[in-house]
């Protein structure tokens, strides 16, 4: 017997934080046997045996099963290989837990029925391919026959959510809401109407052109910030500038018919579901938060109504 220090099972328990019962269990199953026994038969542990117990405890705390722990401790399999496999498994478990957390949070916030909860759960569990198919169906409904156009191809890409491999809870919640919106027939019809209106405005034009909202946004925003009332004479030059640009876009005269046409476009665009969809996209894709255009659109719509009524 060499002069290496030996520790009693009680000393080892205090050094490792394991219970005496657990240490005995590991010894009895050959996972961390004692170095030797005292003349009276008590288990005794040397430094290497204590270090092995520390390793076993760490691996157990990390969720490894006892059979794998024994192989690692006996150097039958590399620790790095085991760590990589278990890290991947844990990452999968974390993603599943985040999905469950997002569903339960959404259910609690909305006061969902059991049927709605079941739908949210199914949407959360969609695979990457299934998510893409769902969004592609929505975009096809909105842009069927138009997506080959470079301008509409860009719009289509800008409306595509890309949930990351390791999403945050708020991204999962946003995805659930986007999935619900994309399945809404009325919202699909609204987006289709916008696409058809934009296509009609672009007919015969070359290149990518700004849409009706972009044409009126800056001047309407400035007028709104300056406190200009939409129906007041001070709003006349703002409306005239916007309708003149819109007339050039469409190749039409700037008359009452054109102003009513522009009003129709802005009313269609002023759908809170569209703005909500764009906000959710920024959350899912990690883009900068979108600025609400509702106040600007409201102002422009009121200004045009005041000049087209009757």
The major beta sheet can be summarized as: 3 strands, antiparallel
- The helix count comes to 15
Secondary-structure element order, as H and E?
Answer: EHHEEHHHHHHHHHHHHH
Q: Which percent bin holds the helix content? A: 55-70%
Distance between the termini: 109 Å
Structure description:
With about 300 residues, this protein is mostly helical. It has a three-stranded antiparallel beta sheet. It has two domains: about 70 residues, Multidrug-efflux Transporter Regulator, Chain: A, Domain 2; about 180 residues, no CATH class. β2 and β3 form a beta hairpin. The protein is built from 15 helices and three strands. The longest helix is centred in the N-terminal third of the chain and has 32 residues.
Present the secondary structure layout.
Blueprint: E1 7-8, H1 9-16, H2 20-28, E2 36-37, E3 43-45, H3 47-61, H4 66-73, H5 79-110, H6 114-124, H7 128-143, H8 150-158, H9 169-183, H10 185-202, H11 212-225, H12 236-250, H13 256-269, H14 272-285, H15 294-308
Antiparallel strand pairs: 1-3, 2-3
Helix pairs in contact: 3-4, 5-6, 5-9, 7-10, 9-14, 11-12, 11-15, 13-15
Key traits:
single chain; 2 domains; 69% helix; 310 residues; Multidrug-efflux Transporter Regulator, Chain: A, Domain 2; mainly alpha; three-stranded antiparallel β-sheet; 2% strand; rod-shaped
Outline of this structure?
By secondary structure, this protein is an all-alpha fold.
């Amino acid at each position: 017997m060499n002069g290496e220090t030996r520790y009693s099972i009680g000393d080892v328990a205090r050094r490792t934080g394991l219970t005496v019962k657990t240490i005995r269990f590991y010894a009895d199953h050959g996972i961390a046997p004692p170095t030797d026994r005292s003349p009276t038969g008590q288990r005794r542990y040397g430094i290497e045996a204590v270090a092995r117990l520390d390793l076993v405890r760490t691996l157990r705390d990390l969720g490894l099963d006892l059979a794998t722990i024994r192989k690692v401790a006996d150097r039958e399999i590399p620790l790095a290989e085991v760590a990589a496999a278990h890290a991947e498994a844990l990452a999968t478990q974390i993603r599943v837990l985040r999905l469950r957390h997002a569903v339960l949070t959404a259910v609690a916030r909305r006061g969902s029925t059991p049927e709605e909860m079941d739908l949210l759960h199914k949407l959360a569990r969609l695979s990457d391919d299934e998510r893409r198919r769902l969004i592609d169906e929505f975009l096809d409904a909105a842009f069927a026959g138009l997506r080959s156009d470079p301008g509409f191809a860009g719009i289509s890409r800008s409306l595509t959510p890309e949930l990351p491999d390791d999403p945050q809870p708020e991204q999962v919640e946003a995805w659930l809401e986007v999935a619900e919106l994309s399945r809404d027939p009325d919202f699909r019809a609204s987006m289709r109407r916008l696409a058809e209106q934009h296509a009609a405005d672009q007919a015969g034009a070359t290149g990518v052109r700004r849409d009706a909202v972009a044409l009126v946004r800056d001047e309407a925003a400035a007028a709104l910030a300056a406190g200009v009332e939409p129906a007041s004479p001070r709003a006349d030059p703002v409306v005239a500038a916007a309708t003149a640009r819109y007339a050039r876009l469409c190749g039409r005269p700037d008359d009452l018919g054109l102003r009513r046409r522009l009003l129709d476009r802005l009313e269609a665009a002023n759908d809170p579901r569209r703005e909500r969809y764009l906000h959710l996209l920024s959350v899912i894709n990690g883009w900068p938060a979108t600025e609400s255009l509702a106040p600007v659109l409201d102002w422009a719509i009121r200004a045009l109504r005041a000049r087209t009524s009757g």
